[in-house]
Amino acid sequence: MTRPPAAAMKAVALTRYLPIEDPEALIDVELPRPSPQGRDLLVEVRAVAVNPVDAKVRAPKDTVEKTPRVIGYDAAGVVVEAGPGATLFRPGDEVWYAGDITRPGANQQFHLVDERIVGRKPRTLDFAEAAALPLTTITAYEAMYDRLGIDRDGGSAGQSILMFGGAGGVGSIAIQLAKRSGLTVIATASRPETIDWALSLGADHTVDHRGDVVAQVRALGFEHVDHVAIFNDMRHWAAAVELIRPQGGIVTIDDTHHPMPMEMMKTKAAALHWEFMFARAMHRTPDMIEQHRLLNFVADEIDAGRLRTTVAEVLRPIDAATMREAHRRIETGAARGKIVVEGFPAASS
């Protein structure tokens, strides 16, 4: 007996790793619609966000993929099927998540994702507003609460945190989480629009990362800060080490080739933490379900009006041309908030 052909779906993919100006850098393809197994959910994707990690994964190199590779690590959509081991969601549930970098990404109409890294979409946000948040929310939450050990519910109130890259995607949610937890936030920003953005999210102070950050922070009255978060790159390592208090902690999300002298970290007994939000899914850690829980916690906070989306731009539709433009904007390094791409094109008649 012959099997019927698998249903096809639209996707944006790559086969070669090219500069984003090349029209072949991202291409429109049709792929078979996947089926969920185990604890997977099959999600109909309604909106995706574009992050620096997307551009890094797609960056030019000599590799050629034998089959189209789909990337994309932020999504909001609707569950259409659940695997036999799935218990947290059922068809019809609206969800948001950042996915797993070791599996095909979310830039496709129907996407498989393990339910343990999926949360319920905030009821008060539409799909585009929700898609802006999962990756940066997980990163900011884990950086502050799991890595730095800040008390989520106010036990660290009154402490200070310096955030490099405060107006970017991760910083935009981290500022809000830090203020919710009672911290004083100093965020770096260099342009009028990014300064205004950081302040609108709740930052108490801003300093210009293009200038002498140490002098600016100390001019605000802080000899040291309790915590430092580096949400852009490690060029600021020396300033971070100078400003962190003895026995304080620095968290970074950047993999770097910059020098990282450790002498002062040792004499301060200060800690360095690495945050990589894909680690739990990549390594199938025993606490993988914590991402499900934290996404649900943040959804409740959003629905209660205590946190807001960080979407800055919404582009349409989800196709190769639009995704190339979103990647181009990300690669400028000047994004304020998040860029979201919404809605696959309707099928032609």
From TrEMBL:
Superkingdom per UniProt: Bacteria
Subcellular location: Cytoplasm
Residue ranges constituting the Enoyl reductase (ER) domain according to the UniProt record: 21-341
GO molecular function terms noted in the UniProt entry: oxidoreductase activity; RNA binding; zinc ion binding
UniProt keyword annotations, A-Z: Cytoplasm, Metal-binding, NADP, Oxidoreductase, RNA-binding, Zinc
Gene3D superfamilies, sorted: Medium-chain alcohol dehydrogenases, catalytic domain, NAD(P)-binding Rossmann-like Domain
Keyword NADP carried by entry: yes
SMART domains noted in UniProt: PKS_ER
SUPFAM superfamilies per record: GroES-like, NAD(P)-binding Rossmann-fold domains
Pfam family, one: ADH_zinc_N_2
InterPro entries: ADH-like_N, ADH_Zn_typ-1, ER, GroES-like_sf, NAD(P)-bd_dom_sf, Quin_OxRdtase/zeta-crystal_CS, Zinc-ADH_QOR/CCCR
Subunit structure: Homotetramer.
Alphabetized PANTHER family for the sequence: QUINONE OXIDOREDUCTASE
Family, as annotated: Belongs to the zinc-containing alcohol dehydrogenase family. Quinone oxidoreductase subfamily.
Stated name of the protein: Zinc-type alcohol dehydrogenase-like protein
Protein source organism: Albimonas pacifica
